[in-house]
Write the structure tokens for this entry.
Amino acid sequence: MDIRAVSGYALSSPIDPPQDRRFAGGTRRLNKRDVVLVVVETGDGARGFSTAGASSSAMREYFEGDSQGTFADVVDGAVAGALEGETLEAIEDAAAILSRTDLPTHLRTEAISAIDVALYDLRGKELGAPIYDLLADEYGTDPTTEMPLYASAGMYMEPEGYVRQAEVLEREGFFGYKYRPGIGPAGDRETVDHLVDAVDEMEIMLDVHTWWKADDSYDAAVVRDLVEHASAAGAYWIEEPVEPADREGYADLAETGAALAGGESEPSPESLRELGETGSVDFLQGDVRHHEGYTGCRPAIEYCRGRDVEFVPHNFGTWLGLIANAHLVAAAPDVRLLEYPVFTDDPLIEAEPDPGMYPFDLAFDILEGAPAVEDGTLTAPDGPGLGIEVTLDVLETYPFVDGPWTEFRYDDDRR
């Protein structure tokens, strides 16, 4: 592939008016959601697409000062400078070239992730094959293009609010309902109890995303008690109950017998696999958008193959990111389940009350048409490459808005 141009476009989907969500110890304000659309163009005019961002962790982006705008500048600058004019014999060649740049490690990882996905899109278009066929050849598997989805929603509300969402999403046929706790230890326990009573066959997952660290009432003993309570009640998994780098914390909680999940915030493909190797997590959550694409996720997937740890891609963003990860699920061995983020006014969910977390219209508008989802099951598109059409009208419709996408205001003013 002869690389003619590499471009990054920072886009913002405003939440207007901003939403304030109370959690234990403060208030979280939601201002917008940001996306970077990456486009790689070859000498013959073909274009490959991907979405990317400054970091896999919203908290790292917020506290360290990176933004989607600065990452788009990185793509247009250092990434484009390294790749434009290059002829790539293999997709992996791009990662080798970018590894020689002087980009900070986390930005280089994000850049490699975006470029890897876009190049697979290009290679599939070149060969007239969907990405999952290319990946199946690499893994030696037969693709399974239908995959169950679990709905990712629920953020800081009264227990009854979580229940209403879960009931809607169970009727829509989703495999599971994942929600964000953090309303206080008593409220979190109550939410678990209400949810397991309210649903029949749908699984319940807790996405702690280390929010428990936001309030002093969640000390290690309380966290362990909450994990044990959720596990005893039948929670399918508890995700990121401790800081991502807290390997001892994971190991301690694993001793309870609770099913733990983690990996989305791991800073590299190597650390993602290392988390799986600890034996502390039952579900390893890599992401092609943050762990160096399809190529970077392969070591972790191969490690999980035939072991008692299941690779379940993290996926939280646009329909374009959903489809990118869907191709991985379709082809990778022993991988079957995919996260489906639920935003307000989702065109695929016509139900009341609306189970969406908050508005993110760009998530849907970035594609022509919609993913093939029926009864909570996604069928991966069989067209060349990603098999979808990106709507470049979003470049004008969703201009980038500077500033943090989310803000945390603590009651004790400690930050």
Summary: The chain has two domains: 3-128+394-410, 134-379.
